[in-house]
């Protein structure tokens, strides 16, 4: 079965860049959309954005200026970078496989999640 | 952004109880509403999509209803494995937003 695994440095210093990888096993990145979502005590669950396997992205406007997502179909991996982090970016970061698309009556939902990776921003 | 609220924020219940959780959207979102179950240290799980469609593999004791702005998640007979936090999420328009969650605890 398809599994998602988030990985990356668990501790990031303020003002630096957070980088995470989501490895997809047991299935292919195509033809899906993939999202990053984070959960922090202060802000609950927050959708960061999605990326299509073709590279098309849609970011949350609240983070758009600092976020970049990419996909590597040869490695079956997704990546997330968030620059200029502060303590407010401390959270558990999840990657998800999305059931979504553009068109009338398409209900977008996150049907598969990774376990999440706790990233702490601290000096 | 579409604001999502949930009530109650937490509840205590016993195995076998019927549990109802309410979610309200800040604007009409038709049936673009999903429900998730979260437990610490495990991958979150999709329960309901499109307000009332049961995700494959999810027990039939879970059901969803509603349309417009008001939605409900019902667990008909609570089981031990259902003690968790439940979040609603709107997919009517990006940015997709979540409710603050309802924690279901053992009485």
Describe it.
The complex is a heterodimer of chains A (123) and B (107). Chain A has strands at 3-7, 11-12, 18-25, 33-40, 44-52, 57-59, 67-72, 77-82, 91-99, 109-113, 117-121. In chain A, strands 2, 4, 5, 6, 9, 10 and 11 form a seven-stranded mixed beta sheet that branches. In chain A, strands 1-3-8-7 form a four-stranded antiparallel beta sheet, with no helix packed on it. Chain A is 0% helix and 54% strand. Chain A has 123 residues and is mostly beta strands. Chain B has 107 residues and is mostly beta strands. Helices cover 0% and strands 50% of the residues of chain B. Chain B contains no helices and eleven strands. Chain B has strands at 4-7, 10-13, 19-25, 33-38, 45-49, 53-54, 62-67, 70-75, 85-90, 97-98, 102-106. In chain B, the strands form two sheets. In chain B, strands 2, 4, 5, 6, 9, 10 and 11 form a seven-stranded mixed beta sheet that branches. Chain B has a four-stranded antiparallel beta sheet with strand order 1-3-8-7, with no helix packed on it. In chain B, a hairpin with a 3-residue loop joins β5 (45-49) and β6. The N and C termini of chain B lie far apart (36 Å). The chains are: A mainly beta (123), B mainly beta (107). The interface between A and B is medium-sized, with 24 and 26 residues.
């Amino acid at each position: 079965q398809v599994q998602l695994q988030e990985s990356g440095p668990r501790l990031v210093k303020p003002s630096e860049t957070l980088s995470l990888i989501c490895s997809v096993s047991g299935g292919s990145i195509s033809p899906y959309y993939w999202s990053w979502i984070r959960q922090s005590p202060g802000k609950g669950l927050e959708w960061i954005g999605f990326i299509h396997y073709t590279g098309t992205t849609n970011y949350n406007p609240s983070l758009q200026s600092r976020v970049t997502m990419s996909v590597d179909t040869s490695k079956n991996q997704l990546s997330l970078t968030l620059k200029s982090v502060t303590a407010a970016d401390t959270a558990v970061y999840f990657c998800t496989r999305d059931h979504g698309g553009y068109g009338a009556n398409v209900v977008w939902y996150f049907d598969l999640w990774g376990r999440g990776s706790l990233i702490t921003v601290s000096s | 952004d579409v604001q999502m609220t949930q009530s109650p924020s937490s509840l205590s219940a016993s195995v076998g109880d019927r549990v109802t959780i309410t979610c309200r959207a800040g604007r009409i979102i038709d049936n673009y509403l999903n429900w998730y179950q979260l437990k610490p240290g495990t991958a979150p799980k999709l329960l309901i999509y499109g307000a009332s469609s049961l995700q494959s593999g999810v027990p039939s004791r879970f059901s969803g209803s509603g349309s417009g702005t008001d939605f409900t998640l019902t667990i008909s007979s609570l089981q031990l494995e259902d003690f968790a936090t439940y979040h609603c999420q709107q997919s009517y328009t990006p940015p997709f937003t979540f409710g603050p969650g309802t924690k279901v605890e053992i009485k």
